[in-house]
Batch of 3 targets.
Target 1
Amino acid sequence: MPDRVLAAIDGSQYAESVCDYAAWAAKALGAPLSFIHVLDNHSQVAEPDLTGNLGLGTREHLLEQLSDIEEQRAKVAREQGKLMLEAAQHRAAEQGVADTRTLQRNGTLVETLVENETETRLLVLGKRGESAHQASGHLGLNLERVVREMHRPILMVPKQFTQPHNVMMAFDGSKTARKGVEMLAKSPLFAGAICHVVIVGAETAENRSQLDWALETLRAADHQAEGAIRAGEVETTLRAYKQERSIDLLVMGAYGHSRIRHLLLGSTTTAMLRNAQLPVLILR
C-alpha cells in the first residue's frame, strides 16, 4: 500500500513551499514524509572541438581537465543536495512532522519518481524546477512529464504556502470525475475546508442531478460542500468562480475527453494551469 508523502526538492524558488505543503499534507493524512533530491548526471560541459593544429598531447590534457571539472561539479551538486535535504527535514520537524526521511538519487527526475511510485501516496513538487526560466508562462517540462507518467495524486504548488480553506473541483459527471469526488470524500486532506464543486455547462436536469450527487457524497463524509452550475467558457468561468469564493486550491483530473479534463493537459498545457497562482491537486 502506498503510504508516503513524497516531496521533490531542488534549488528553485519553490523549495520552501514544497516543504511546507508536504508537511501540511503529511500531518493531514497521518502519513510519513520523504524528501527526495535527484541529481541529473547528464554532462553540463560539452566536449570542445579540438581539431586543427593542436597536438595530441594537448588534446588529452584538455580532456583530462574537463573530466576533473565535471567530477568537482558533481561533488558540489551532491553536497548542495544533501544540505537542501537536511534543511527540508529540519523545516518539517519544526512544523510537527517527526517521521521523515531523505533520499538522494542519480538519474532523471521523472524516472526516479516513477521508480518510487509504489510507496507514494501523494507527490508534492513545485510548478517549475530550478532549470526553468522563472518568468516563463510555461510549466516546467519535468512537471508535464511527471503528470503524464505518474499514477498517483500530484500536488503542484506555487512559491508561497497558504493553508487551504476553500477547495474547488471542476466536475463534469464523468466516471473519472466521480471517482475524483469519491477520493476527496474519503481523504482527510481537506478536513475543515469547504469543498466547492463546479459544473461548467447549462442548467439541465442531468447536470443538476450530477451536482447533487457530488455534494451529497462529500457531505456524507462530513465535508462542508457547496456547488454551482455555470454556463460559459471553461477557463474564464472557473477563474471567475475562484475569485468570487476566494478559492485557495484547485482539484482537477488528468486526461480524458471532456472539455474540463482537456483543460489540464492536452497536446499543449493550458493557460489556466500555466497561470495558476495557487496549488493544484491533480488526481489520477
Target 2
Amino acid sequence: MERLLGITMMLLSRRRVNAQTLADKFEVSHRTIYRDLETINAAGIPIVSFTGSDGGYEIMEQFRIDRQIVTLDDLQSILTALKGVRASLDDEEMDGLLTKIKALVARSEQKQLEEAGETLIFDTNLWHGGGIKDRTILAQLRQASKNRTVVSFAYTNTDGAAEPREVEPIGLAWKGYAWYLYAYCRLRGDYRTFRLSRVDELRVHMERFANRGVRMEELDARWGNQERGPEIELLLLFRPRLRVRVEETFSADRVEVREDGSLLVRASYPDNHWMYGMILGYGADVQVLEPAAVAAKIRDMAAQIAAIYKEAPADAAAR
C-alpha cells in the first residue's frame, strides 16, 4: 500500500515517469511496477502510457487530487517554506512531504509555476553554510524528540565553559538566525533552550521518557529566558555614516536623527556578553551615553583590546 501511494504521488507531481525510474526508486522489478500501475488504474486513478524514447507513464491531464479550498498561491507558499526547512533538515521524510504537496498541483498549474519562477526564497542555512555536522545533529534531535528518547551532550555557555547535559528533547525551533532545542534539562530540573551551534558530543540514549505535559507553544513563550537576564535601557549615539545600519537594526520609533546627521537611539537589551559584543561591533562609530556603568565597561573592554595590540611584538604583523 505504501509503495502504491508513493508511485501515485510521483506520477501526480511529475509530467512523465518511466518504468525504470519507478523500479529504481522503490527497489522492485519492472514486473512489480507494471502490476502496481494496473492496481492504481483499477482504483480509479487514470494512468496513460507512452512509447518511444521519451515514453513512460503519467496520470491523465484532467485528473488531480481534490484540494478543496487551497489555492495555487497557498500551495506555492507551502512549497517555499518546505524547501527552506529542507535545506537544513535534508531528510527523506521532508522529501516525501514535498512530493505529496506537489501532487496537489494540477498539471496545467505546474506549468504556470515553472513559467513564473521563484518569487521568494526562504533558506534557514546561514551564508557560511551549516555543514554535515549541523544537519546530522538536527536529524538526530528531531528523531529523538519524536521518539521521546533521552539525549546527552556537552553544552558551551556564553562564558565559553562546556558542561555535560542530559535532557528530554521536546522539539526544535528556528529563531532569528539559529536553531534551538527545547528540552527538559535534568541538571537544572526545568525546561531550557539550547542553541545547536553550542552542542557537541551528542549521544542519543535508549531510555524513553514520559510526556511531562508541557507543549512547544508554552516553551516558545519563555524562549531564551535562561540566557537573557535583566534588560537595560541604553541611550546610544551613532555617527552619521552608520545611518543605514542603524535603520536596518532599530525600529524607527527608537531612532532620532539630529541636525548634524548623528543618530540617537534608545534600545533595551539583556545585560549579557552579547550586548557588549554588539556595541563593540560598531567600533568607534557609536558612543554609549547611558547608563554610565555600561559606558565604563565598554571603555575598559576597549582598553583591554588596545593593550593586546600595544603589547604585541613589532614583527608580529610580518609573521
Target 3
Amino acid sequence: MRPADLAREHGLSTQAVRNYEQDGFLPPAERTPSGYRIYTETHAAALRAFLALVPAYGHATAGGIMHAANAGDVDRALTLVDRGHEQLLRDRETLNTVRAAIGSLTTGRPPEPAATAWSIGELAHRLGVTAATVRAWERAGVLMPSRNRATGHRVFQAADIRDAELAHLLRRGGYPLAHIATVVEQVRTAGGTDSLVGALATWQERLTGRGLAMLDAAARLGAYLASRS
C-alpha cells in the first residue's frame, strides 16, 4: 500500500500519514530500493486505531497508546486506556455531584459540611491538578477559600470543594475561567442557574460522545493489536 492509499480512506493528505509514522503513531514502514514507503494492512489498522483514539482520549494519550502498542508494550497501552475510562467515570460522578449541589442550593439547603478542612495540596490531589492551578482559579474568582488565622494557609470547606469540582469539570469542557467564575458565583448565590444547567447539559452530551468514541476506539485498537500478532 502507498501513503495515498491510507490517506484516501480518512480524507488525509499523504504528508499527514508520513507525519503520523514519523511521530511513532504508526509502525515504521519498509522502503523500496528507490526509497518509497511500503505500507501494509497492519499500518492501515494502526492509522484507524490512532484516529479513533484521538476523539476518545485526546491527542496526547492517543499517541501514548500507539507508542506503547507499537513497542509491543500492550500492558502500558491498556493502562492508558484504563485511565481514560477512570477519568470518564469521574466526570460522570462529578456531574451528579454538581446536579445534587444545584438541587440543594435552589431549595435553600446549605451544603453538607466537610469532615475536615482541606489544604490546597489535598484539593489539588483530589482533582489531579497542581496547586498552581488551584491558585490560578482563586485569582480568577472561581474559588474563594478562607484562611487559617494562625498560619494564613488556605482552607477549603465543603462549598469550596464543590466549586472546585465544578470548575475542573467545566475547564475540561473548554470553558474559559471568566465564564466558570460567573457560573460558580451563580451556584453560590443559588440564583440564575440557567447557564449552569445549559453547561452541564452540553457536557453531558460530550461525555456520551466520548463514551461512544471509546467503544469505537477499543474495537479499532483491538483489531490493530490482533494484526500484529
